[in-house]
Amino acid sequence: MTARSRAELNGARRVVVKVGSSSISGENAGKIDLLVDALAAAHARGTEVVLVSSGAIATGMPYLRLDERPTDLATQQAAAAVGQNVLVYRYQSALRAFGIVAGQVLLTAGDFEDPTHRSNARRAMERLLGLRILPIVNENDTVATHEIRFGDNDRLAALVARLIGADALVLLSDIACLYTRPPSEPGAQPIREIAYGDDLSQFQFGATVVNSVGTGGAATKASAARLAADGGVAALVTSIDLAADALAGADIGTWFAANPQPEVAAGTGSIPLDEAFDPAG
Predict the structure, then answer these.
(1) Annotated binding residue at 54?
(2) Name one GO cellular component term (predicted).
(3) Is residue 278 part of a domain?
């Protein structure tokens, strides 16, 4: 059953947590330990946790002697191949202290479009969770092409949350919550709650950010949170620094209430890969 409030995250049955490249790579690589501490605490409470982690390309860049995110597909794929290995090793090294084993799950958009692939992906993650393994999900950047990519891992996380019928989706970034306009602009106000069906066109989330390590931004968070909510999965947007508080049910971040009567129940039926973000809700 979907979480009806932030407080219910503390005793949630199943939660999908997503973290972006900039939060766990470069000078922020040390925050992997902070994140793992939060995930392990939730795991110890009995919550089934799935982590959707960006960062493969960014993590692989130094090993390819690259200062900026490559623009050509072949080099992106090479960086992802190296970085995914290193990234999962870092997670497993941090998880070892808690006796938790990670399982790597790499997906492409085609895995959601094809009913057989989608069923296989769901079954694999259900089995991992049943065995108390912590699945670490990422897009399979080594084989994905520009034409078949999800667009960003916020969207992937929302699709995964719907696929497995999560109680909630927690989107972690570099800001504590969403704002009515970019927080650097005058008059920006924090957004505490977004009821299902609220008109989002009143907010100025800004364009998708493309930087040296990845893509994302407030707009992709809002889009993914609404996509999850449409499928009956509540969503919380907050900072990686507040991950432990978020999973413990603290009154923080921006809360997206779930659709009480989703047309497609979370975890069943088709997943709308081409569902575009409509700010008007």
Answers:
(1) yes
(2) cytosol
(3) no
